[in-house]
Amino acid sequence: MARFVHQVHMRWSDMDAYGHVNNGSYLAYLEQARVAMFFERYDGTFAQGTVISRHEIHYLLPIVYHPEPLILELWIDRIRGASFTVHYEVFDNGRLAARASTDCVTYEFATDRPRRLTSDERDILQRFVDDGREPLTVADQAVADQAVADRAVADRAVEGRP
């Protein structure tokens, strides 16, 4: 299956005092894309409930507001008895700016407990299973982290801050 692709528009208010999109805004972008993926062909399948148990975001490049939308690619991995993982790549003007994942748990709110995935839910998730792209390696993350750190040092130097 090809990845699910969704456009997300930034808001001017998503930027923080440092002039780039605040890290908390990324969670809203991920949510918008995830909801779009599940509701694109919504038939009530996941209506019983799903909760988020974990988010992880690797910030690779800072994003500064512009009117063009971000492009998010999503896919599913690790489908288990009562949970699954959604992976994301966030592109800003064609550049990979972040990689993220969200662990989702199917949930029964009436009993306040996790519930097993139904066969219909599994079928929907299978449509979005990973298409073979490799996740971010530790070495890739180290290079990306260093690039962000170098940019921060350069920005502080231009502003005359230590």
What do we call the CATH homologous superfamily? Hotdog Thioesterase
Structural class: alpha+beta
Global morphology = elongated
**Individual helix count:** 3
Write down the secondary-structure element order: EHEEEEEHH
- Looking at the overall shape, the CATH architecture is Roll
Binned, the helix content reads 25-40%
Strand elements, count: 6
Termini distance?
48 Å
Can you tell me the CATH class?
Alpha Beta
Q: Mind summarizing the main beta sheet?
A: 6 strands, antiparallel
Number of domains: 1
Please mark out the parts with pLDDT under 50 across 5 or more consecutive residues, or reply none.
Answer: 135-142
Task: Describe the structure in brief.
By secondary structure, this protein is of the alpha+beta class.
